Amino acid sequence: MKLCAIVPLCALVTLTQQAPSREKCVCELTNSEKAFPHDKLSTVEDKASNCNSNITPQKTLELESLLLGLERRLPRLQGDVAVLEREDDGELYAVLSLYVIENELTEIKQLVERLNRTTLGHRRLTNDTAKQLEDLRAGMQELETYDTMQVVKGQQDNKRLQRDLDQCMSGLYPTTQPTQHPHGHCPHGRFRNITGPRVYTAGEYPGSYQYGAWGRDPKPGAGKESWYWLVMMTSSDKYANYVRLYSSLSSLIVGVSDPGNVEINPSNPTTNTIQGPNIVLYGEALYYNCYNQDAVCRFNLTTKTVATLQLPKGTRFNSKGNFCHLDECYPFTDLDLATDESGVWVIYTTAQDFGNLVLSKVEEGEPPTLGQTWRTSVYKQGVTNAFMACGVLYATRYVSKDVEEIFYSFDTTTGVERLNIGVFINKMSPNIYSLNYSPVDQMLHAYCDSNMVSYKVLFS
Q: What is the model's pLDDT at position 169?
């Protein structure tokens, strides 16, 4: 009997030890909120990204460039027709004038056809984009219903308050205007700003030649006042052996080259051919860095002869003194040729100047000679490009893929340097490989990643 009583007692003790502790608590959470649709958010983000890639400033500027080319072309045609109406000389010159007018009408027709295609494409793009925006708005409104804690609304309120605060601060403390510096004897007044782009075009060879230069001749021959020139680095993005000519801006935009190419040499690269993209045309002569030399070449487009201007001993060349920014240097930009109201300049650096910019005037003659030289305190590899306007050297630097800053100037009349110019250029491509100022129309011509862009220089 005693043994039977002991067994149940041991079983009771065992069961008691296996019971769960009262300190542990298990709760079941039921979420009454709807699951957030991450797949729908990804779809909205993809549509917004596609919309941004389809609508770009380049598309708008393409249309504006075509309209500008047509605007400049029509008065010229009107003048040629007026000359034809006055002619009465046995039909000889009238036939020639008719031939010229026929060619001009053909180019205008091509320009109008391209303008119509561009306009039609923009209309389709506008309609498609409007529908996409409506879909995006509906999708975002649906997604906002999941923001039950109103986080997005709070962020929007904060942005609105920040914007109001910035406007208030800007009213109390106006933005400082760019420093007005001495400008020598400039017929246009003081340099103020850069606006635009006014022209944006890929020309005949979209995306084919990354490096190059283009612009107008500040001292053109008779009948060539409206001509444009283009030089593309056609060999290894470093060399070229010809200059391509266009009879008007509209011809350049639609890609009709007349009179065509003027060759320096049939092969490339070789002696006296072009090295690097920093090129200018002045007085119907092309100025550029001679192939494999620390010298400036001047190629006469009429006589097809080359004259050489030797630069001082120690001048850096063959990509040893390039324009640069933090991410990269632009190859074979050791010598930068520039034009302004007074003629041709060359911008370079030497070993003696420890890499700082050196500026020299190129004097016309047979052969050309090196005129007065100025030395600056700005390091060339801290500069991305340079140009001249009214005897003042301006240097730029890379700010971002969308913005370039004109930050420096050197006045050759007063010798005064400024490092706080603070004028910004809105870029259409990340890199500006050449920058030429045209005193004919106060335009700044840039060659950017195979595209041709121009800006208006504003003077007071």
A: 63
